[in-house]
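Why does residue order matter? Because the sequence determines the fold. Keep that principle in mind as you read this record.
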Amino acid sequence: MLTLVRGATRIEKGIMTYIVTGDCVDCVYTSCVDECPVAAFHDAEDKLLINPETCIDCDACVAACPVEAIHADHDVPEGQEKWVEINATAEEFPVIEAAKDPLKGPKCVNPNAA
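Structure:
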């Protein structure tokens, strides 16, 4: 049974929302940023992260990601589970509110995506 504490953060309540997984690393396609109505994305240099405190679970960003790196916290692909905790650190990085040129670095899973 989950006990909720008044004033607890979404993370403390066990609510994570959508997360960006490792498939974003070194790609940083930012089309998802333009779809987000609440500026939940943070720019962590070689990847984007979603702030679980800001995300409203609208899923608008999911279809916008050309490398399919965004998933609901309960539907994270096998082997990508660590990204739930990594996204929880999003506030350590600046908010990104507008798309920019993709990074398309050497570790990008699909450098030819949109």
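The beta strands are 18-20, 41-43, 48-50, 70-72.
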